[in-house]
Amino acid sequence: MVMLSGLESASREELLALNGLTMTEVPDVTEDHVPAVCRDCGDSLDVDDSMGFERRQVRDIPLSTVTMTEHRAHRCRCVCGTVTTESMPGQVAGSPSSYGPNLRALAVYLLVFVRNEVSRRRAGVSPDPPTDICG
């Protein structure tokens, strides 16, 4: 539990929900990341060897809508008895639910460029005139 001023104690999931980062039960896309080989003996593994998985969800924006992709890093047991876990892809954050690179880029664009343009217009500064890049 986490204590916040003005709020009663809240769990991590409740705090994430306040920021809109709750995990959905039915993601738009599910990607399974299964180890290809046993980390001990090198025998091949597949989803049939899975003992379970860790879930993380990433929000991102395709061309016109947000899609929810759930990444599942499977743990597989080899015939030799060793359990091998596949890593999450590098672009997936360490939290259970996060924003993808396209949504983060849109947020930066809106915060930096659009906000700057609005500030310039409020100050009575005209937008930069178009420049002829061809000479």
Provide structural commentary.
The protein is an alpha/beta fold. The protein has a domain at about 25-100. Helices cover about 20% and strands about 30% of the residues. The chain has two helices and seven strands. It has helices spanning about 10-20, 100-120; strands at about 1-5, 5-10, 30-35, 50-60, 65-75, 85, 95-100. The strands form two sheets. Strands 3, 4, 5, 6 and 7 form a five-stranded mixed sheet that branches. Strands 1-2 form a two-stranded antiparallel ribbon. It is elongated, with a radius of gyration of 22 Å. About 15% of the residues are buried. Residues about 1-5 have low confidence and may be disordered.
Topology:
Elements lengths: L1 E3 L2 E4 L1 H7 L10 E5 L16 E11 L6 E11 L5 E3 L11 E3 L1 H22 L13
Parallel strand pairs: 3-5, 4-7
Antiparallel strand pairs: 1-2, 4-5, 5-6
